[in-house]
Design a protein that fits this description.
The chain is mainly α. Helix content is about 65%, strand content about 5%. The chain has helices spanning about 30-80, 85-95, 105-110, 120-125, 130-135, 145-150, 155-160, 165-170, 180-190, 190-195, 200, 205-215, 215-220, 225, 230-240, 250, 255-265; strands at about 10, 20. Helix 8 runs antiparallel to helix 9 (about 180-190) and helix 9 runs parallel beside helix 12 (about 205-215). The longest helix is centred in the first third of the chain and has 50 residues, at about 30-80.
Length: about 270
């Protein structure tokens, strides 16, 4: 038995720490009992550790099996190659519902068909990081993103760099008038100009880029003021001589512009 005179003792915890036990002068501490309790606690912790190790192994095996299953479904999706909404519906009707929450599977499916985002779990449609990754693979996925993300410049810009017309068609707020977004969209797709805001169609920098790439299509959508801009019209006819028919009459009477159109058409 511990001497009565001792006011406090220290005992080593199971985890290696030190616990101070305050003891009254007339208390008697059964050291043997404390030792037994310590041994019991040590064995209990060891048992818990063994159980956790076993669970960790099972989790790792389950994760490995889960990854194999996801890869099988990705291969299945690529083989079936659903191109329309009915094909996508048929696939997801027979696939396990857990796939709709699986980021790896959904990104692989979206890369093949942007409309696959329609079938993804609601949480993924609202996840900015996931949606950015999705539209980088297929800009058409933006159609099915949560509405607030369609007004997020980072998301819309990522979509514009993949599919310009889809990005500007889905864009909310002032993003279809944003020069950076519209330029990125136009570089990908001439029809993006159709969905651009009127102020973007009157932006010389934007339309000059479009004229150099698409020629006639650019002048079709250009603001009337730019159809009379010699720089823009020259760039357009040098790419496509037939663009001249969509230029302002003043440009159709300009010798330099006409010669450039004739030269381009041979």
């Amino acid at each position: 038995l511990w001497p009565k005179q001792v006011r406090r003792i220290f005992m080593k915890n199971v985890d290696g720490g030190i616990t101070r036990l305050d003891v009254k002068e007339d208390d008697v501490i059964d050291v043997a009992n404390l030792s037994r309790q310590k041994c019991i606690a040590t064995e209990h912790v060891k048992h818990l550790k063994d159980v956790q190790d076993s669970l960790d192994v099972k989790d790792a095996q389950g994760e490995e099996q889960g990854n194999e299953d996801v890869q099988k479904w990705i291969s299945d999706f690529e083989r079936s190659a659903p191109e329309d909404m009915q094909g996508l519906r048929n696939f997801f009707d027979r696939a396990p519902s857990s796939l709709r929450k699986d980021r790896t599977f959904m990104l692989a499916a979206i890369a093949r068909n942007g409309h696959a985002l329609y079938y993804s779990d609601r949480s993924l449609k609202a996840d900015k990081q996931f949606v950015v990754a999705a539209v980088q693979r297929n800009g058409e996925a933006l159609f099915y993103a949560n509405e607030p993300l369609k007004a997020d410049k980072e998301v819309v810009l990522a979509a514009a760099q993949n599919c310009g017309s889809a990005a500007l068609r889905c864009a909310r707020g002032v993003l279809n008038a944003d020069r950076e977004v519209v330029l990125a969209a136009v570089k990908q797709d001439a029809s993006a100009l159709y969905y651009a805001d009127d102020c973007a169609k009157a932006d010389k920098e934007v339309m000059l880029v479009a004229a150099k790439i698409y020629g006639r299509a650019a002048l079709v959508f250009a603001h009337s003021s730019l159809k009379a801009d010699k720089d823009v019209v020259l760039a357009a006819v040098q790419q496509d001589g037939e663009a001249l028919e969509h230029a302002d009459r003043s440009m159709q009477a300009d010798k330099e512009v006409v010669l450039a159109a004739v030269k381009q058409n041979g």
